TrEMBL record:
Entry GO terms, CC: cytosol
Domain spans labelled Enoyl reductase (ER): 11-323
Protein name: NADPH:quinone reductase
Entry EC number(s): 1.6.5.5
Reactions catalysed, as given in the entry: 2 a quinone + NADPH + H(+) = 2 a 1,4-benzosemiquinone + NADP(+)
Keyword Oxidoreductase (UniProt): yes
NADP is among the record's keywords: yes
Amino acid sequence: MVQAIRVHQHGGPEQMRWESVTVPAPGPGEALVRHTVIGVNYIDVYFRTGLYQPAGLPFTPGMEAAGVVEAVGEGVTELAVGERVAYASPPPGSYAEQRVIAADRLVPLPDGIADEQAAGMMLKGMTAQYLLRRAYRVQPGDAVLIHAAAGGVGLIACQWARHLGAMVIGTVGSAEKAELARAHGCEHPIRYREEDFVERVRELTGGEGVAAVYDSVGRDTFERSLDCLRRRGTLVSFGQSSGPVPPLDVGLLAKKGSLFLTRPTLFHYTASREDLLATARELFEVVEQGAVRIEVNERFPLAEAAEAHRALEGRRTTGSTVLLP
């Protein structure tokens, strides 16, 4: 028996229970992983509340972790027992001391990447990779707007976009978060509670607007994000921390400048093992080069995962939050 967080009914953080569970031996194509560090992400909140539906109840939340391979099932040849690995992949289940997962979802960790770094960046860092390199491919000289610039994805994306030669504008909720974002590549942090971010973006871009907006906030920012775009600009709506985006009349995209809109998810961009390894490889490269720093700013015991969720939902976190088994 091992310990894990279990959710028996959807609701608030209080629904997360610390329980003993049985972990089976890995089957064909699977691996047993002992977690050393576990990542916390807003998608975990979506599953806990029922906004996203797990396969059934009860379930163990969590999509990201680093650890060590303890055993492999039949047919697994790319991984060895004792190898350090990390992952960011469905189905949920990482809030546990150990789990069985499809072996083709595990990425071997290079020596230059620590377990805590990996658990703090696999989901957020690979998200930044597909946002900046594929959903809209940032070019030198582009101006981009990154909402929640001091958050987990935001801090990584700001550094990476700056590394690519973009002018980086970001929205933040406080003076402290503005300074944090600025220290991580965001040249122009906008405190959205005190100034109109659409007006400020237009001012910073000489009235033109940005090439792309990366929006994880959803309902509260969606339409005004469209107003920040230049003609034929791209809105990448990849989250909804403020709630789901209302239905959209697509004619609005034409009216506002023949805009592009995409609602991607990481898991479609890493569905094949080839894409997964290529995405992780590019992330590891920019981290090992020092172009992107991974900031793990909050740590909680795994048994106190509910407190981690309260901090995340209360906007009291910056950078990455991890759980320690």
